[in-house]
């Protein structure tokens, strides 16, 4: 369940990123929608980092690195 939340946040970040790219290509004059969509990407990225920190601290996520 927790991994599903992380996957959904990651997909939302990608959608926000490509949405802002599409807005930038369609309206290069800078009407504010690109900045607004990039702000959402930053907010979602911060939520993803907080979810990862919470998951590692509570044991929901386990690192599989060989070092």
Structural class: mainly alpha
C-alpha geometry: elongated
Number of structural units classed as domains = 1
Largest sheet: none
User: How do the SSEs run, as a string of H and E?
Assistant: HH
Give the helix tally.
2
Q: Helicity, in percent?
A: over 70%
Whole-number radius of gyration?
A: 15 Å
Q: Could you tell me how far the N terminus lies from the C terminus, measured between alpha carbons in angstroms?
A: 27 Å
Instruction: Return the average pLDDT rounded to an integer.
Output: 91
Compute the number of strand runs: 0
- Low-confidence segments, ≥5 residues, pLDDT <50? none
Beta-strand portion reads: under 5%
Looking at this protein, list some descriptive labels.
single chain, 67 residues, mainly alpha, 2 helices, elongated, membrane, DUF2909, transmembrane helix, DUF2909 domain-containing protein, transmembrane
What do you see in this structure?
- The structure is a single chain.
- The protein is an all-alpha fold and 67 residues long.
- The chain is 76% helix and 0% strand.
- It has one domain (2-58).
- The protein has helices at 2-26, 33-58.
- It is elongated and about 45 Å long.
- The mean pLDDT is 91.
Summarize it.
The chain is mostly helical and 67 residues long.
